[in-house]
Design brief:
Largest sheet: 7 strands, mixed
Strand order of the largest sheet: 17-18-16-15-21-22-23
Radius of gyration: 22 Å
Strand content: 15-25%
Number of helices: 16
Shape: globular
């Protein structure tokens, strides 16, 4: 490999941080990954330590370079992709956070969300932002930190506090931190704060005023891929060289780019901590009538932004993690498939993982996790199977809403993320959807999308068509389930959903 022919992607997710190095052909040449702590101070509260995330980021960069036998100066550019909506404030002078980051799954702002909805309806900000009121998004999380963390609002009013989602936090540190780090966020992450006007791609003053959020704490909104770097990594930083930092995408939009879904009507589903189905809708935002989110898909340089419809599911891979950590039924995530294969079906059991309420297409904060249909016949194999099937059922609901909103009937679904190695799940997904499910050669397309955005910025790749030519399918699952079996299973799922509602008063 020649020098300056390799792109570094920092993929900061909900449970771990990864650095992946890609060559000009989009092949992985180096990689490292580390988990970070999940902090649960109270029921419904989910936090991360921002300084631990920055430490993990530096560590995986060093390890990825070592695994590839590369030096920092051989990296041409850096792209960042991140868990979205997760919110923190920090001191611009010291870099010290005002407490832990509030994770996208955190529900402590439910009272604030209910109050806002009571005053103007759940969709009061949707015409501007494309998003319903929900604990999911950053806006109320910012308000909570300002109102509840000692010193935060005072620092904000004095111009010392900076808000960011994780992309902003990492880019600020990568480009210097307290020594002149750039405070930016790309359009995809900005679109998930519930503070950005989707049409103007700018912070909306009326929403900021309603929530009491000072404009001064907000990052500059930039394109997802920018030939003018936001800054350079430091000689004493993890890369040990000055490398342009010039691309950022929220993780689900990064996966859309990594799957080369550049044409309207193309869709992908990422199976990670949650599940996120995105459909490219072109250069016009399409309002949803069926519980989906309208969001920015990406913006390349000075080109117009491309939009997407998104179905967000809160708990999928996290349910497997819960089975491992909370119940101890498996020792690692891979064992869930082995356990589920000990039975032929779910034994009549359904698991609705509404740990943080239900996201798309229901948007019910009053729902909670429910296991229904239990009999003496049901064993741990059936529970394992119900855990996997919950992911497929939730994806079906989102895809059904997406087809109704867009008028586009999908003929296949591109999939990626950690759970796509589970072949039982992928076959069941194809059966429930009734369309083929296709896994690409590189399953971790989130990091690949960030690398593509950075490579486009510096001219390593010249066009999206060049990237599309690199996409290769590795495996396809065709639907094989009888129609009556599929219909019966979906009836059971819909009854299970109803049982999960109105749990929280």
């Amino acid at each position: 490999m020649t020098a300056q022919d390799c792109i570094a992607a920092i993929d900061q997710g909900t449970t771990s941080t990864r650095c992946m190095l890609f060559d000009r052909q989009g092949a992985v040449v180096g990689s490292a990954q580390l988990e970070h702590q999940q902090i649960y101070p109270r029921p419904g509260w989910v936090e991360h330590d921002p300084l631990e995330i920055w430490d993990r980021t530096q560590d995986v960069v060093c390890r990825a370079l070592a695994s590839a036998g590369l030096r920092g100066e051989q990296i041409a550019a850096v792209g960042v992709t991140n868990q979205r909506e997760t919110t923190l404030l920090w001191d611009r002078i010291t870099g010290t956070p005002f407490g832990n980051a509030l994770v996208w799954q955190d529900t402590r702002t439910a009272g604030m969300v209910a109050s806002l909805a009571q005053q103007g309806g759940q969709d009061r900000f949707r015409p501007l932002t494309g998003l319903p009121l929900s604990t999911y998004f950053s806006a109320c999380k910012i308000q909570w930190i300002l109102d509840n963390v000692q010193g935060a609002r005072q620092a904000a009013e004095q111009g010392r506090a900076l808000f960011g989602t994780i992309d902003s936090w990492l880019i600020w540190w990568l480009t210097g931190g307290p020594r002149g780090g750039r405070h930016v966020t790309d359009v995809t992450n900005a679109s998930r704060t519930q503070l950005m006007d989707l049409g103007r791609l700018a912070w909306d003053e009326s929403i900021l005023a309603t929530l009491g959020i000072p404009n001064a704490i907000l990052p500059q909104i930039v394109a997802s891929s920018d030939p003018e770097p936001w800054g350079y990594t430091l000689a004493d930083g993890p890369f040990r060289a000055a490398i342009p930092v010039c691309a950022a995408l929220g993780d689900q939009q990064a996966a859309l780019v990594g799957q080369s879904c550049f044409a309207p009507g193309e869709a992908k589903n990422t199976y990670g901590t949650g599940c996120f189905l995105l459909l490219n809708t072109g250069m016009q935002p399409i309002p949803s009538q069926r519980g989906l989110l309208t969001t920015v898909a990406y913006q390349l340089d000075s080109q117009p932004a491309v939009y997407a419809l998104e179905g967000s599911i809160a708990i999928t891979g996290a349910l497997v993690q819960w089975l491992r950590d909370n119940l101890g039924l498996i020792r690692n995530a891979a064992e869930v498939e082995t356990l589920a294969l000990t039975v032929e079906d779910n034994g009549g059991a359904y698991f609705v993982p509404a740990f943080s309420g239900l996201f798309a297409p229901h948007w019910r904060a009053d729902a909670r996790g429910t296991i229904v249909g239990l009999t003496r016949y049901v064993n741990k194999g059936h529970l394992a199977r119900a855990v996997l099937e919950a992911t497929a059922f939730q994806t079906f609901e989102v895809l059904e809403a997406m087809e109704q909103d867009s008028g586009v009937r999908l003929t296949s679904l591109k999939v990626d993320g950690g759970m796509v190695q589970n072949e039982l799940l992928m076959q069941f997904q194809a059966d429930i959807l009734g369309v083929p499910v296709v896994r690409p050669r590189i399953a971790e397309t989130t990091a690949l999308g960030a690398a593509y955005a950075a490579g486009l910025a510096i001219g390593l790749w010249q066009s999206t068509e060049e990237l599309r030519a690199q996409w290769i399918a590795e495996r396809e699952w065709a639907p094989a389930m009888p129609a009556e079996t599929r219909a019966s299973l979906l009836r059971g799922w819909r009854k299970a959903i109803q049982r999960s509602l109105e749990w929280v008063e």
